Amino acid sequence: MPRLREGAPPEADKPKSHMIGLPAPDTELKDQNGKTVKLKDFKGHKTIVLFWNSGCGFCQQMLPDLKAFEANPPERSPKLVVVGSDSPEANKALGLQSPVLGDPQFAVGQAVGATGTPNAILVDERGNVGSSVVQGAPAVFELARSPQAQMT
Fold first, then answer.
1. pLDDT tens track of the chain, all 152 residues?
2. Beta-strand (E) ranges in the chain?
3. DSSP per-residue string spanning 39-53
4. At what angle do helices 137-145 and 57-71 cross, to 10 degrees?
5. C or N terminus of the chain, fewer CB within 10 Å?
6. Parallel/antiparallel/unpaired status of strands 47-52 and 79-84
7. Does the residue 14 lie in any domain?
8. For the whole model, what pTM was predicted?
9. Residue 10 lies in a domain
10. Is residue 35 part of a domain?
11. Dist. CA 15–CA 44, nearest whole Å
């Protein structure tokens, strides 16, 4: 799994925005219950796609805030889909209400320019990538609350 390098110049690991406006990767992943889900299944809704790894300390620190966000989402907030690199059992153990899709090869994250976890992108209601990749819990929550992510 790619990781951000500590102490590297900010530009060295800056997420890429080459996907903005292009269709989100058309991929099929299994959710935490073994059901096949396609990212295009979320068309019609703005969706935050959060790239996750339970072995990531930053992800673990973010989990309580993520559960609180799910329990009391801001008005007009986007849907949340977590794409995790863990087993279905580990993904289910997170206890999230949102779909948690398994991507053990981190293929979707790499396709959109994610360089580690937690990273996220916004997918617009047409199914296109609507933001650059953001890194870290504060940036993920800021993206989820941003005007561009608000449902209309």
1. 444 334 333 443 444 567 899 999 988 999 888 899 998 899 999 999 999 998 999 999 999 999 999 999 888 889 999 999 888 888 888 999 999 999 999 999 999 999 999 999 999 999 999 999 999 999 999 999 998 898 77
2. 28-31, 36-38, 47-52, 79-84, 100-102, 119-123, 134-135
3. GGGGTTS-EEEEEE-
4. 30
5. C
6. parallel
7. no
8. 0.86
9. no
10. yes
11. 26
Residue 44 sits in a domain whose CATH number is 3.40.30.10
Contact 50, 140 (CB under 8 A): yes
Q: Tell which residue, 125, 100, 120, has the closest CA to residue 46.
A: 125
Check if the beta carbon of residue 27 is closer than 8 Å to that of residue 101.
no
- At 15, the amino acid letter reads P
Range of the domain at 33: 19-149
| CA–CA distance, 110 with 132 (Å, rounded to integer) | 13
Burial 66-81 (b: 16+ CB within 10 A, else e): beebeeebeeebbbbb
Total domains in the fold of the chain = 1
18: tokens are 């080459």
